[in-house]
Amino acid sequence: MIAFTIAAASLKRMVRDRVAAFFMVLLPLVVILVIGATAGGPATPRVGVVAAPGPLAAGLAQTLDGTEGLRTSAYGTEQDARDALRRGEVDAVVLIPGDFDARLASGRSVELPLLTAGPTGNAQGAWQAVSAGVARHATAVQAAAFAATEAGGSLSARLPLARALETTVPRVTVQSEPVDGSGSALPAGFGSSAPTMLVLFVFVNSLASGAAMVQTRQLGIHTRVLAAPVPARAIVLGESLCYLGLALLQSALIIAAGALLFGVSWGDPLAAVVLTVVWAAVGTGAGMAGGTVFRTPEQASALGPTIGVAFGMLGGCMWPLEIVPDAVRSLGHLTPHAWAVDAWTALLARGGGLGDILLPLGVLGAFAALLLTFASVRLHRSLTT
Amino acid sequence: MRAAFVIAAKDLRERARDRSAWALGFLAPVAIAGLISFAFGGAETFHADVAVVDQDRGVLAQAFTGFLAGPELASVLTVTPVGDAAEARARVDRGDFGAAVVIPAGFSAAAHGGPVRPLTVVTTVDSPLAGQVTRSIAGSFTAQLDADRLAVATAAAAGAPAGDLAARAAALRLPEQVVRQPSGTRTITGVGYYGPAMGMFFTFFAIGFTARGYFLEQRNGTLDRIAVAPVSPFAVLAGKSLATFAYSAASLGTVCLVTSLVFGADWGPPAAVAVLVAAVALSVVCLTAFVIAVSRTERQADELSAMLAFGLVLVGGNFVFLGAAPEFLRVLALGTPNGWALRAFTDLAGGAGGGSVVVPVLAILVICAVLTTVAGLVHRRAVRR
């Protein structure tokens, strides 16, 4: 009972803090929104198109716009398109030459320069998708030019016939056949940003909240409580419950907001609840450990978020660990974050249940036990000596 | 003026004694930038392993396989022949291949007007880009086949004598070709973007340090004691601003230096980088003045500076790669000094000349002027009360 009273008092103090509320509620939601919107769709290559005058050039731009696996943006000048390429706003730029129509009309071929910033994945994807789109556009042009040569007339005169026949002459189609319906990475957009930010912010917030425990020690609150007939273990338990409550409260807020505002499906309810509670226990251990290790509140506020963000980066909260080298992936699994993200991936990407996340849950449980024991022993020792 | 330097030196000495200031200003940004460099090192190029199943064994299928394994695509694909479609599907599912192409029986006959069966590209959600690239390559190849068939049909419909139309069409080459050209732009690496982004993020913590320090001095009477000395209020303001400017510039400059020397980040022409660093440091000074002007207490200043710092870095793009963000986020970023600075740093890292920083620096100066004016007006109103 005493432990609950201590927990409630500490929790009330933390929740009343406006900065804590900002970091607990508003910041995670805004980050989920920003990251979710930025990584909102499949990694479709983006291509800037600098168009030229003429109906054929316009037709090509339109064909590229409708090409599967490509997102196009029109740019008025080559310089604007180059600026966008340099800033990473597009993966490639295709330049339709000014004499595009004239060259094709006179039966000559045209080379379309494609500018890329390097051999990145999306640049390669853009190159191939643009090539396919251009080839698709050139099909009717080639047919019209051939008909003009064989039967007389001009390319522009024969083009409507070629375009009309294009819909009736059978094509060799390319069909896709996905081999599985689930993946090893979280679904793009909010489906990825919400669970990873839950992992990140519960940990960061717990660590930063260590400042409150440092302050409590500095103000002598623990010492005054000990003056009452309160055993030290009740204080340790009370502080643990306070941190656990804080972590669970923040998790619940992120889960609710993720589901209601961003339409995130959190997977199997039982598994999601167990995972959330275990992760909150890890956060509790980290926050309490921080509260006993940091010497000043400033240290906790400064180092807590830095350590939390660094662990989050290593553990796959900022980007999926699938894209990093194997060694970095292994290193990432030294942090609890990677195991939590693995578990969310199993639930959200592969539709798994409790049985599918037993290994990550076990590892996270071990992390929680280790951190809680370490923090409890240190806090107990500081209270009794 | 001497008084200003004395005050600045005193403030810097205080900052140097604070380990949190060292951790946040120098250690954390370098550590985080290094972590990003480590994570993304060597992971920024694209290459896919693709299986090919030839069920046709005709001339056209061989030509297609040769095209896939040819020198033009050697840097993009590694092609492995696989016996049957079931094995290819299983191996794509296992992750041995990013995608597989199944060339159907009768594919070669399509060139001579035979029935057309689709090419199948087997994909997996774990390698969407590999599937996309393979599909585009197959699309480019089949486009030539379609173009030849369409050319024969169009010429015949236009009244060309039948003769050996098909043979002549087979010698055609699509009149539009995509040619890759170097753009003169460098790929923005992880450390190239997040080095300055994280550098600025942690530099913004100086707002809180300075504002807190100001109110602490106000509370303990230091400012009043300075006021009775023959030191003008302007000298106090200049001294405190100078200290903040020096700390911010040193922090961001250190990130620049360390990421350049240790992680090989190319920040661009040093003079332009130095101007940008100075502009960012100036914006930190103006933001600090704004926080001090609108706050009444140390606690308010602390809260406002934390929210301002996180708000600015979120909107300014320091947490997400702005190039991949939606247009509205990119526009929103230009309302912040760090958004402009990040755009300029990205331009420089992408290979733009030193002159490219002129507009961003002017924009930062305008924001600084606005902040200073607002701070001045608020302060004057507060004094009149």
Features:
heterodimer; A: 385 residues; alpha/beta; abc type-2 transporter like fold; four-stranded mixed sheet; 16 helices; 7% strand; B: 385 residues; 2 domains; 65% helix
Explain briefly what this protein structure is.
Chain A is of the alpha/beta class. Chain A has helices spanning 2-16, 18-38, 55-65, 78-86, 100-105, 121-151, 155-166, 190-208, 210-219, 221-227, 232-261, 269-293, 297-314, 326-332, 336-348, 358-384; strands spanning 46-50, 71-75, 92-95, 110-116, 174-178. The longest helix of chain B is centred in the middle third of the chain and has 31 residues, at 233-263.
Structural commentary:
The complex is a heterodimer of chains A (385) and B (385). With 385 residues, chain A is an alpha/beta fold. Chain A folds into 2 domains: 2-39 and 188-384, no CATH class; 46-166, abc type-2 transporter like fold (3-Layer(aba) Sandwich). Chain A has 16 helices and 5 strands. Chain A has helices spanning 2-16, 18-38, 55-65, 78-86, 100-105, 121-151, 155-166, 190-208, 210-219, 221-227, 232-261, 269-293, 297-314, 326-332, 336-348, 358-384; strands at residues 46-50, 71-75, 92-95, 110-116, 174-178. In chain A, α2 (18-38) packs parallel to α11, α8 runs antiparallel to α11 (232-261) and α15 packs antiparallel against α16. The mean pLDDT of chain A is 86. By secondary structure, chain B is α/β, with parallel strands linked by helices. Chain B folds into 2 domains: 2-41 and 189-384, no CATH class; 48-170, abc type-2 transporter like fold (3-Layer(aba) Sandwich), CATH 3.40.1710.10. Chain B contains 15 helices and 5 strands. Chain B has helices spanning 2-17, 19-40, 59-68, 85-94, 128-157, 165-170, 190-203, 205-219, 222-228, 233-263, 270-294, 298-316, 327-333, 337-349, 358-384, and strands at residues 48-54, 77-81, 99-103, 119-123, 176-182. Chain B has a 4-stranded mixed sheet, with helices on both faces. The two termini of chain B are 30 Å apart. In chain B, 50% of the residues are buried. The mean pLDDT of chain B is 86. Classes of the chains: A alpha/beta (385), B alpha/beta (385). Chains A and B meet through α2, α4, β4, α6 and α7 of A and α2, α4, β4, α5 and α6 of B.
